[in-house]
Amino acid sequence: MLSISPKDIATQKLYGLMVSSVGPRPIAFASTVNAKGKPNLAPFSFFNMMSANPPVLVFSPVLKISDQSSKHTLQNVEDNKEVVINVVNYNIVQQMSLASTAYAEGVNEFEKVGLTMQDSETVTPYRVKESPVQFECKVTQIIKLGEEGGAGNLVCCEILKMHIADEVLDDDQKIDQFKLDQVARMGGSYYSRANQGLFEIPKPVSSMGMGVDALPQEIRTSKILTGNDLGKLATIQTTPSANEVKAFLVENKLNEYVTESSLEKIHAIAKEYLKKEEVLNAWKILLAKSKN
Length: 292
Fold this sequence. Notes:
Blueprint: H1 11-21, E1 28-33, E2 39-44, E3 47-52, E4 55-59, H2 72-80, E5 82-87, H3 93-98, H4 109-113, E6 117-118, E7 127-128, E8 133-144, E9 153-164, H5 177-180, E10 183-185, E11 190-193, E12 197-200, H6 217-220, H7 227-233, H8 242-251, H9 255-260, H10 263-275, H11 279-290
């Protein structure tokens, strides 16, 4: 058995071992506003419920290991003492993952990841309309666990109002766990889908994805591509070049097929590439149609 003293290894390695051991972890998709009222949206997997009376949720933004900087979310709750915690299900998991990208302060992650801002009833931050369960909360205390990189900050949130989508409720007004279809965080790039098991999402932190707001209108409004599909397409920084698209069509003998196919059919083909995590090929087939 491998035995480790935390003080004997680098924080980054310890962090990796811990998040690979403690899971599946529920995800707090936290919506806040900064001092200027600009919305922010970010996911946190150091999260759980800690009390029912009073009803309290706790999540923990961790100081960046490399430079001890704090998350925008932490700065916002320190300033405004309000947050909406949105539950993440499989239907929005790709967009949630994209929201973990370190976009600059003031960037609206709702727009970047293609989710809808919905007014709250008791607090200022917006709810994620597509989330099946939303908690409007006031922040009652923030407990700092350290000053170095990797240190957590426990944000204690008292629930003021809870919103539950009708489609996840059964006839007795209880939440149907299969309909809820929650996802949870594991180690590395792995997630757990409550009713099916492990799956993987490449982490979008190594590059700044273009965002859903930068996708062509015909793609964003597709009747075939889902929010998760759009989230995958939006993870890349730049789209394939015209030469790359041309070579792809020639290699796969798709020129005539693309010309004769409807936009909906092309979107369906792109969706199949996305299911196989072939994001660049999905882009090539989409761009090929838009150039015809």
